[in-house]
């Protein structure tokens, strides 16, 4: 008789990570999808929360989550192709949701590859609603980065920049200042760097970099004050930071862009970023899971 077990991941050895990587490759190959479950974020300290479903010590299912604001959990997951439609993902999700409630999480946000029919069917079956779509992009290192705004300076964040960051981000993205301030406080980590862009010593924009490892960097929270948009600052800021990352020998530079934001998409493409995948995001209340 087969024995199954749902457990919280506590072993972050190379062997354990390799088992997840093997399952990810199997699912990706079977589904012919662009699945990525955030393996690089699995670590003992300051890593994502993760749960494993095992049958006779074989990894069958995986689910991980993290929160940037203490309100919404961002979730990745996968189930072995031979064990789907058996309620395994729902079981993992319920186990994780019980922890989420303790931490005050109110909603779950799932990232599903747009070319994963099984993943989309699973999430819709749970009752989740479509929220948005996003392109994943990677910088083509064969491109040459050119900048021209001689008066623009990009420097590291300083303590006095927080209020500007809150103002710039909340105005650009439409979030409230209290939410934005909480978000920046919660995501202040050693591996996450913020750059401030100044023109004639006046701050006009910001951009953040999350160093996944020594070779990989993810650009995010990139914005320019609405009153300063349309002046070419965005291109200069992004080009400047890409050049910094290339000088640091980052071999892979990634970012994401909402599919409807065509202006940003064209800007990133003109600098040298290429679309590598598309993901759909779905949301559901934690109360609907538990």
UniProtKB/TrEMBL annotation:
Keywords: Acyltransferase, Transferase. The keyword Membrane does not apply. The keyword Acyltransferase applies. It comes from the Bacteria. Residues 152-290 form the N-acetyltransferase domain. CDD domains: NAT_SF. One of its GO terms (molecular function) is acyltransferase activity, transferring groups other than amino-acyl groups. This is N-acetyltransferase domain-containing protein.
């Amino acid at each position: 008789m087969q024995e199954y077990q749902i457990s919280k991941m506590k072993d972050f050895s190379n062997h354990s990570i390799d088992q997840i990587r093997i399952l990810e490759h199997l699912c990706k190959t079977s589904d012919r999808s662009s699945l990525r479950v955030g393996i690089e974020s699995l670590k003992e300290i300051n890593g994502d929360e993760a749960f494993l479903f095992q049958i006779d010590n074989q990894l069958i299912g995986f689910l991980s989550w993290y929160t940037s604001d203490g309100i919404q959990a961002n979730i990745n997951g996968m189930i072995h192709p031979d064990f789907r439609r058996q309620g395994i993902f729902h079981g993992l999700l319920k186990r994780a949701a019980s922890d989420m409630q303790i931490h005050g999480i109110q909603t779950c946000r799932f990232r599903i590859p747009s070319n994963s029919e099984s993943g989309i069917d699973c999430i819709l079956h749970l009752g989740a609603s479509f929220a948005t779509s996003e392109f994943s992009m990677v910088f083509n290192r064969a491109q040459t980065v050119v900048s021209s705004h001689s008066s623009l300076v990009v420097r590291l964040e300083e303590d006095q920049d927080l209020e500007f960051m809150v103002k710039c981000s909340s105005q650009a993205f439409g979030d409230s200042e209290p939410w934005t301030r909480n978000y920046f406080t919660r995501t202040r980590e050693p591996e996450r760097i913020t750059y401030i862009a100044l023109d004639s010593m006046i701050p006009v924009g910001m951009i953040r970099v999350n160093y996944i490892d020594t070779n990989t960097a993810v650009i995010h929270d990139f914005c320019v004050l609405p009153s300063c948009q349309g002046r070419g600052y965005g291109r200069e800021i992004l080009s400047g930071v890409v050049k910094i990352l290339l000088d640091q020998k980052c071999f892979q530079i990634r970012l994401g862009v909402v599919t409807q934001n065509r202006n940003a998409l064209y800007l990133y493409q003109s600098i040298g970023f290429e679309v590598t995948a598309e993901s759909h995001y779905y949301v559901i209340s934690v109360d609907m899971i538990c």
